[in-house]
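It is worth pausing here to work through a concrete case rather than discussing structure prediction in the abstract. The textbook approach is simple: state the sequence, then state the predicted structure, then interpret. We follow exactly that order.
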Amino acid sequence: MRYRMRAETGVREGHWQRWKTVIVAPAEYLEGTSEGYDAQISYEDIASWYEARSPNDARAAYRARIIRDAITRGRRGGISRLDPIITAFWRMYYADVSLLSPELEMRDPGDKGPNSTWIQFRPARLGPGRMLIHKLLPGRLDLSFSRVAADRVEEFRQRWGTVLARQDVSVEPTGASLAVRQWCRL
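Step two, the predicted structure:
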């Protein structure tokens, strides 16, 4: 897991002596994650903690209400509509990847909406800040390097020169990242 790798690097570089990985997320998300965190706490547990203090504490009541509102809004805004065909496709894709290429470490996809067309792979061996993204629409595969400045495009183009000689491979800035991109012909 990239957080553990970052924490261990921090120890080696003298930034801290000890560390723990902790995730704070909605309970629904925590039930579906198999990541190896040292501790986890749900938004719902935090809201309940504040609610237990709210009879005498107006600030705690306010914080609990804000968290509950965020949980409700998140449920409404996450997947607006489930799409059984897209969900079935993702499940078949997941089954095939798990069988044929387990080293890609694809997560169980769960239910999907109609706009779920980017499949991410974050195998640990790629290292922190790197992932493969199969972008079904528009039909490409990106090897993404997070937090790599766009001014390094030429450096990457030279490093990937042999591969880039193919017409369907390029290096592209993508927001706060760079991607080595291959267009997929179906």
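Step three, interpretation. The chain has a mean pLDDT of 82. The chain has two domains: 2-78, 84-183.
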